[in-house]
Amino acid sequence: MAGDYVSGNQSLQPFYNYPVSIEGIKAAILNRKKFDTDRPLLVSVLEEQYKAIQLTDKQKTNLQNLKNVNTFTICTAHQPNIFTGPLFFIYKILHVIKIAAELDKQLPEHKFVPVYYMGSEDADLDELGFISINGIKYEWKTNQTGAVGRMKIDKAFMKLMEAVERQLQVYPLGNEIIATIKKCYKENSTIEQATFQFVNELFASYGLITLLPDNASLKRKFIPIVEKELEEGFSHTAVEATMQNFPAEYKVQASGREINLFHLKDDKRERIENIEGGYKVQSTKYKATEFLNELKKHPEYISPNVILRPVFQELILPNIVFVGGGGELAYWLELKKVFEAVNIPYPMLILRNSFVNVCKDRLRQAEELKFNIQDLFKKEMDLINELVQRDSKVQLSLKKEKQQVAELYQQLKNISGAVDVTLQQHTEALRTQALKKIEALEKKMLRAEKKKFEAEQRHLHKLKTQLFPGDSLQERVDNILVYYAKYGKGFIQKVYDNSLTFEQKFAILKEERGCD
């Protein structure tokens, strides 16, 4: 679906508002200006969240600018994966920073602030509680439950961090990044706060503002929408209406529930369900008025799910652009009617940047194997077959011979048919059998010839393993720590320098140093 969105497929156009262009930005600004964002509340909350942080000049300017009605945010969102999780976490953030900087140049009458909205209420520790370094998976084994952002760094986490440190300290700048994570990930700190500090260490110089939406003051602003959801179940109705008209060829990404809210208290994040005369959270039942009164007293108990989280985000931020991955954009395209139901502006959607990093040694190996980087996106077995067929000194293709056999059997079919027409079917069956046996012989010849190319196959496997670890995209597996340990903040700057804005393309980063 993401590819069709980027290409402007007409069937998807009813489900978003703006084309990805400077003209689309201008239209989004005009629409956003009609909505009264509570900027004093937003800035007050951000100042409180940053009170223990030494702000850079860019961050100070951005916070001040957010008070102005001509300032707008460029936002991405992600859960607080430990140590930021997969590389695309970093790519998303650098993308919003790059867009904001570009718009500052193109539309100087406005100001644009890059924002990382932390989805710290996600309770899926299995997804957020591990990282991969050099093919080794490091997993946080804790008994804590509930929102991951509220979990505390325990002894199990500290033990995990020690194992990660041993991997990193062999690299030129390993000790530098180890010192940074030790500074941020301290025992008894929450994952939310540790992630907040770590992201700030990486991106403060770019002026990035991180927003922690798990905040009672911000959620109090959300209460009218919560009441509407509890009383009407409006978001489920809106999504259902959308999906009735959604192109059938696309899979539903997030169908939601009758009530798209969770109850978030202590170490539990639990569904809110309708019952006769009220609501139920697990085995606890509430009368309707009793439950609403509790949420008004304790708005921090409110936690929107995947359907209403974007609405909360756009309510509290003066946002005009949301940058997300393919899966994120797919479910955002289901939400336009949800936004319309509560009169909140729906932002421009931009597919995040994607990168693959190729070190100098692998580039050389690719050249020696006579493949370019684009070729390496093919399946490994297809590349091996292509290499052997290209470089072998013997004939491996029996295409010409198969054509000759097909012509021979056509002649036999004509001859046998003249004798008895029923023999044509038998001759056709013989032709099919003969061609299958030749194809089997062709595969055996290729398999035998491959044994002469074992060194090339090893090099190709190394290439594929680095670029596509576990048969997945590098950006979905690798973590920033090892890249920082090798290249320092220069890696982040290089990604920023090569980040695109509106182009929505896949990019290849060529590293100048060796792989180790």
Description:
It is a single chain. The protein has 516 residues and is an alpha/beta fold. Helix content is 50%, strand content 14%. It has helices at residues 2-6, 22-33, 39-49, 57-65, 88-106, 125-128, 155-168, 174-184, 191-203, 216-221, 223-232, 234-245, 288-297, 309-316, 326-332, 336-341, 360-368, 380-391, 399-419, 423-450, 454-467, 480-487, 489-498, and strands spanning 71-78, 111-118, 130-133, 136-139, 209-211, 261-265, 268-275, 278-281, 284-287, 302-304, 319-324, 348-351, 354-358, 506-510.
Notable features of this structure?
23 helices, 516 residues, globular, 5-stranded antiparallel beta sheet, 14% strand, alpha/beta, single chain, 5-stranded parallel beta sheet
Count the strands?
Answer: 14
Biggest sheet layout:
5 strands, parallel
Distance between the termini: 37 Å
The main sheet orders its strands as 5-2-1-11-12
Mean pLDDT: 91
Kindly name the structural category: alpha/beta
Number of helices: 23
Uncertain segments are none
Shape: globular
Strand content: 5-15%
- The helix content, as a percent range, equals 40-55%
What is the topology?
Blueprint: H1 2-6, H2 22-33, H3 39-49, H4 57-65, E1 71-78, H5 88-106, E2 111-118, H6 125-128, E3 130-133, E4 136-139, H7 155-168, H8 174-184, H9 191-203, E5 209-211, H10 216-221, H11 223-232, H12 234-245, E6 261-265, E7 268-275, E8 278-281, E9 284-287, H13 288-297, E10 302-304, H14 309-316, E11 319-324, H15 326-332, H16 336-341, E12 348-351, E13 354-358, H17 360-368, H18 380-391, H19 399-419, H20 423-450, H21 454-467, H22 480-487, H23 489-498, E14 506-510
Helix pairs in contact: 5-23, 8-9, 8-22, 19-20
